[in-house]
Predict the structure.
Amino acid sequence: MTLLVGLGPLDDHSTIEFAATLARSDGQDLAIVSVVPAPWPTPISGGSDREYAVWAAEQGRAAAKRAREFIEEHCRGIEITTSWVRGRSAPSALRREAARIGADLIVLGSSRTVGRISLGSTADALLHSSPIPVAIGPHGYGAPDSGVIGRATVAFRGDAPSRRALRRTAEVCLRAGATLRVVTFAVASQGMFTAGVGRSERIVAAEWIDQVNVEQGRAVAELADLGIDPDQVEQSVAQGADWSKALQRVPWNDDDILVVGSSREGRLSRLFLGPTGTRIVRAAHVPVVIVR
């Protein structure tokens, strides 16, 4: 199996380090691809289009060389290929390359704030159009001491996509020797976190949590045919005044990943991350994998 790593012009080496952690965890290969701008389809007088094509090719070769040197020095023991392709659109080019090599996952990085996930134009487009899962690492990601993923947390909504995400994640955890956690995240009203919350609100919240616990228990029990012991799967509900605070209600380790299921049915074979999923991804401080 192969992971396709989309290396953008502003990505640091943390994108490769995140991809290498995933590859080590599940015994996969890496195909690192840089997309450089394609020249205009019609020639430009004066030959500037040819000069531009030469410059783009040089940038592509340089990016592939840097990626290989980093892997050889810091991420040994992983089978890799490095290449560059031309494309008018980075998302389209990555989708084509993923289809060409039969990739199982597209791995992207983030820019801007260290330790946070940023959905740039490429990531946003792929989350609406990719036929395979997409993984996004926070800016400045560093591999855990173990070098592999130790725990996967599934953001559980109780619907069919999140149940499928839970099952797929459980299968990977079994292969990788990682533990599995199921968490339902929710944003509660500000009043729920004050002493003045009314009795009726407390009753509604308690009933909702009971219902969530039942749905989580049912979903985990469905994993028995895989050999998963339900007692070994941590289950919880995390509420906060906003999505960031909700995610902070559960502890996170440096070897964690968060798995979010695509939130819409009937969109052919492509991912679609709805408003809730997008907010959870943006609030995460650990790598996120979005699956159908």
